[in-house]
Amino acid sequence: xxxxxxxxxxxxxxxxxxxxxxxxxxxxxxxxxxxxxxxxxxxxxxxxxxxxxxxxxxxxxxxxxxxxxxxxxxxxxxxxxxxxxxxxxxxxxxxxxxxxxxxxxxxxxxxxxxxxxxxxxxxxxxxxxxxxxxxxxxxxxxxxxxxxxxxxxxxxxxxxxxxxxxxxxxxxxxxxxxxxx
Length: 181
Known about the structure:
alpha+beta; Nuclear Transport Factor 2, Chain: A; 2 domains; six-stranded mixed β-sheet; two-stranded antiparallel sheet
């Protein structure tokens, strides 16, 4: 458990596998018991699931380039700031391809044991790039939408600790295939 070595494992995985799509090398970086964490739920996907994830992202953004920014390591954990750039060329989350360039910044949290990543989670700034490519729009008076739509929904009370003075809701838009360049 060497923080410098663990940071290098994660950095090399992002640069040599994710950024290139070279999943033949994925087992050099990902452990067989690899687990992804999403919304506090653990998904044991293993090496095959990691391959599927990388290939799925690269289908959506075939010219994907991922760059590693800052990294912090403590114990088995490595936190990495990454920036992903690519062109939206395939359907993603039900969004028709736009052919537009997108930039996403994220913070990933990886657990490294025995020189390989055993757990991955994180968060990305998806609303901003989705707004930029026209996949979503802000609902409310600032976008010419219905002012009542930019308020809290009754079910929000079940999951909020407190209410903010302003809330933003987004509409998902169907992009035209004619927009693909």
